[in-house]
Write a structure and sequence with these properties.
single chain, 373 residues, mainly alpha, globular
Length: 373
């Protein structure tokens, strides 16, 4: 039986596909017919084996030549952080291109830049001793002149210098109070829109209570109870002006979380913090930015009001404090207009500038508002 099997396999192994005599390569020992058949198949089918080997070698060579920088000699592309910064620069360029189309916004921005430069250079232009009472350079309530363009106050101090120095305090308090207000409103709005349920109900009822209460009355109450300082003014304004921001941010959060990619993020294991910080917050930031610019003007007016009522810090000079000093000096009844008009105009111009900037930012970030240019 073994010999017959060997003889049957032998003719198939002696004739290769190329017509050569393959008997030596395929003929094995007479005692193992299975070895003979396997060896004969491997030996005769040389074309397929060679093609497979050549393909494997070519694939390895291709992978080695294109697999990395060492094979190609080219440097790696920009990383994720570089791409992110490139997209941010492109987005900022598009934002500025659209913002420049709003003439009122450009005017407001130019006015703000001017006031900020004046405030930052105040120590160099007027000096830190401009509010000194003992070293006053002029006579009390002296009218405008070449030496004192805006006249003097009740102590003989230069009103132009006081106006420039007071811009530092008014702008700083307005900015800090607006940031505090927007931070509280954004936090409550995002969390209430995300968690919902009883937490959202409680937070929205608290928000409604603050909305129906007069903001100025609450700020006066806080400023009266706490010590008279700039921190008290910032706290009093910040904790009483956040409800509007909270309402707007919550509505935007509800709209964002109804989108399909939020459901996919949760299905992939994204937790509450991931959804709020990586998906909700970037989508509500344009609204928060626009709201900040609008609240700064209200905060500056509130600071001036509190200082005018005598609830500000008496040791610092601000525009509201100048108005309060003018009222105490009887500038209204005596007709000393130079004591009242400059601080009032400064407050009005800065508040108007921030309002114009805020409306322009809203129009750029949300063109559907249809704000005129």
């Amino acid at each position: 039986m073994t010999a017959d099997t060997t003889e049957a396999a032998e003719p198939g192994g002696t004739n290769g596909p190329d017509g050569t005599d393959g008997s030596e390569g395929t003929k094995g020992s007479p005692g193992d017919s299975r070895t003979d058949g396997a060896t004969g198949s491997a030996g005769t089918d040389g074309t397929g084996g060679t093609a497979a080997g050549t393909g494997s070698a070519a694939g390895a060579q291709s992978a080695g030549s294109t697999g990395g920088p060492a094979g190609t000699g080219k440097s790696a592309g920009p990383g994720p952080r570089a791409l992110a910064w490139r997209r941010r620069r492109a987005s900022a360029a598009r934002f500025w291109k659209e913002y420049r189309k709003h003439r009122a916004g450009v005017f407001g921005l130019a006015a703000l830049v001017l006031f900020v430069l004046v405030a930052l250079t105040a120590p160099l232009t007027v000096g830190s001793d401009v509010d000194s009472v003992t070293g006053a350079p002029g006579q009390p309530l002296q009218g405008p002149s070449g030496h004192f363009p805006l006249g003097t106050d009740q102590f003989g101090r230069n009103l132009l210098g006081l106006l420039i120095w007071g811009s530092r305090v008014s702008l700083l308090v307005g900015l800090l109070a607006a940031v505090l207000s927007v931070a509280i409103g954004a936090l409550i709005g995002i969390t209430a829109g995300h968690f919902r349920g009883w937490y959202a109900t409680v937070m929205m009822r608290v928000t409604d209570w603050f909305l129906v209460m007069p903001t100025l009355v609450l700020a006066i109450a806080l400023a009266t109870v706490l010590s008279r300082s700039l921190g008290t003014i910032v706290l009093a304004i910040g904790v009483t002006t956040w409800p509007t921001t909270a309402r707007l941010v919550r509505a935007q959060t509800l709209a964002v979380e109804s989108r399909p990619y939020i459901e996919r993020a949760r299905a992939l294991g994204g937790g509450h913090w991931h959804v709020m910080s990586r998906h909700v917050l970037p989508n509500v930031m344009p609204l928060v930015l626009a709201q900040t610019t609008l609240i700064i003007s209200s905060a500056i007016l509130a600071e001036a009001t509190l200082a005018f009522l005598g609830l500000g810090d008496p040791t610092v000079v601000s525009w509201g404090g100048l108005l309060q000093d003018a009222r105490e000096a009887g500038a209204v009844s005596s007709g000393d207009w130079w004591y009242l008009v400059p601080p009032g105009i400064a407050i009005a111009v800065v508040a108007l500038a921030f309002t114009l900037c805020g409306r322009a930012v809203e129009a750029v970030l949300n063109p559907r508002l249809g704000v005129s240019r």
